[in-house]
Design brief:
Helix content: 55-70%
Number of domains: 1
Strand content: under 5%
Distance between the termini: 18 Å
Number of strands: 0
Structural class: mainly alpha
Shape: globular
Radius of gyration: 12 Å
Low-confidence stretches: 12-16, 18-23
Largest sheet: none
Mean pLDDT: 77
Order of helices and strands: HHHHHH
Oligomer: single chain
């Protein structure tokens, strides 16, 4: 149960970063770095590794539409820390969280968990 809670906490924080749909992983890295500087994410460490892992999970998990909706919301704000994207964040968190709970040995899920 502790692992399940940690994974859900990871995914909630992961969703707080999102990614820029215009530049893929590079946009995610920029938003992650901005969120770290603005203290509005619990993601620590290498944003590139985190964003690559999130990219790797979104397809197999079937969470692409949730990620795109969340990204769109984040990109509507002036900064990564601005805006009210709670419902989109929850949808993405639930989707990716369920996948990682069922695939805890997935290397991308492992990278995501290690990012917090």
């Amino acid at each position: 149960m502790k692992q399940a809670w940690m994974i859900m906490a990871l995914i909630l924080a992961a969703a707080a970063v999102g990614c820029d749909d215009d530049t893929g992983t590079a946009g995610c890295v920029n938003l992650c770095s901005e969120a770290q500087a603005g203290h509005c994410t619990s993601i620590t460490g290498d944003c590139g590794a985190f964003c690559n892992a999130l990219d790797g999970v979104q397809g197999p998990s079937g969470c692409t539409s949730q990620r795109e909706a969340y990204q769109g919301c984040l990109n509507d704000g002036a900064t990564a820390c601005a805006g009210d994207c709670g419902s989109q964040e929850s949808a993405l968190s639930s989707c990716v969280g369920l996948y990682c709970l069922a695939h805890s040995t997935d290397s991308n899920c492992s990278v995501l968990m290690a990012s917090f």
